[in-house]
Design goal:
The strands form six sheets. Strands 6, 7, 8, 9 and 10 form a five-stranded antiparallel beta sheet that branches. The chain has a four-stranded antiparallel beta sheet with strand order 11-18-17-12. It has a three-stranded antiparallel beta sheet with strand order 1-4-5, with no helix packed on it. The longest helix has 31 residues. Helix content is 27%, strand content 26%. By secondary structure, it is α+β, with helices and mostly antiparallel strands. Helix 7 runs parallel beside helix 8.
């Protein structure tokens, strides 16, 4: 009786010793083999943009470890509800490293991004893989990405510039909407360029977003709508390359910090109707422009203006009517503490004859918060009134 009772006690004691020994050996082995780095298990690159529900961990990349030396991993895997890896581990003697050892913030036990709204991005904090939720404001810069390069017999479509990755070649006879990217350049404009260009010339056809304020990676053209929405692409179409683009805005307030109004007035020798049209075009060109902190932006590049007769101007005409509108914008921006926009002068003739009212003018935001420019007009003809506001976003 005494002997039969002793055997279980001895067996239990041996089991405890074995567990302690295996744990000690496991710690020793781990000292020789560093733990897996979080960036080694990703399903994408560190810095890539992700939204909730995306798989960010590649399970096949997670290192397996011996069961005997990592009994505590069984508990972790049970907590992660990974029952199949547990069964496989017990049958094969090796366990998948629990994801809790490698990942943390906004990543589920199944390696899926969760727990945030908007476009986050993959990052590493310490020794943990995390998804950073977006800040209230996320912006990047419109950057040329896809180009068409003229060849002897047609055109090459390349991503990443003239010497970038070759996507496809298109014969001259096959140039049409189905073969040429036309998000930014119409097929009519492309054909005009093609007929005037020489072999080796190139034209930008699509744009990415780069140099984000939060350090995330470039977002390529095919991803922009997915992560940031159609409105961001629409905004990008309106503004020249290099412009800052507010890709995401979380919940925020908007407060008018300054306002300014300027009347068009009558100068019939230049044509008041055309002048009014140009003033309204100037307002359309700048209305809705968002300028992140410590950046500058031009106006929209796809706004048309009417030439007005002027014997003093080169070619005998000038875009009159934009000066009162420019004075309105000048008054609002400088009243808000912004510097005088480049391309606008402290004169009645606020914009020089040879300066474009849109891409030739640039408004700089020297504040620590984003601003939005709002412009609109009232009335018509010589009685037109141009209103400008600077709105603080915060």
């Amino acid at each position: 009786m005494r002997r039969s009772l002793l055997n279980p006690i001895l067996a239990f004691g041996v089991l405890i010793i074995l567990i302690i020994s295996f744990s000690y050996v496991g710690d020793t082995i781990e000292g020789y083999f560093p733990p897996q780095k979080p960036e080694e298990i990703t399903a994408m690159s560190i810095g890539d943009t992700v939204v909730s529900g995306m798989k960010v961990v590649d399970d096949a990349k997670i290192r397996k470890v011996p069961v005997l030396f990592n009994f505590e991993y069984l508990k972790n895997l049970f907590e992660e509800e990974k029952y199949l890896p547990i069964i496989n581990g017990l049958l094969t003697g090796s366990l998948e490293t629990p994801l809790s050892q490698l990942a943390n913030g906004n990543i589920s036990a199944q390696g899926v991004a969760q727990g945030f709204e908007g476009p986050g991005y993959l990052s590493v904090q310490g020794q943990q893989l995390v998804v950073n939720a977006p800040q209230t404001f996320v912006w990047g810069y419109k950057t040329g990405y896809t180009v068409g390069v003229k060849t002897k017999d047609g055109v090459e479509i390349r991503n990443g510039g003239k010497s970038g990755e070759l996507v496809k070649t298109v014969a001259e006879s096959d140039i049409k909407n189905d073969t040429i990217p036309n998000e930014y350049v119409s097929i009519t404009t492309f054909k005009k360029w093609y007929n005037k260009s020489t072999e080796g010339d190139y034209i930008y056809l699509d744009y990415s977003l780069t140099r984000f304020n939060d350090g995330r990676n470039q977002v390529t053209p095919n991803q922009i709508k997915t992560f940031f929405g159609e409105s961001v692409v629409t905004y990008m179409k309106n503004y020249p390359a290099g412009s800052p683009v507010m890709a995401y805005m979380g919940p925020h307030s908007e407060n008018v910090t300054s306002s300014y109004t300027e009347a068009l007035g009558s100068y019939p020798e230049y044509g008041d109707s055309a002048r009014a049209y140009n003033a309204m075009s100037f307002a359309r060109a700048w209305n809705g422009t968002i300028i992140p902190p410590k950046t500058g932006s031009n106006g929209k590049e796809n706004i048309g203006f009417e030439p007005c007769p002027d014997p003093n101007a080169t070619g005998g005409s000038a875009v009159h009517g934009v000066c009162p509108a420019a004075r309105s914008l000048r008054g609002a921006t400088t009243s808000a503490g912004l510097p005088l926009p480049s391309g606008i002068r402290w004169d009645e003739l606020a914009i020089a004859y040879d300066t474009s009212p849109t891409v030739g003018v640039k408004v700089y935001n020297n504040h620590d918060y984003p601003i939005k420019l709002v412009m609109w007009t009232d009335g018509s003809g010589a009685g037109l009134v141009i209103h400008s506001q600077v709105v603080r976003l915060g």
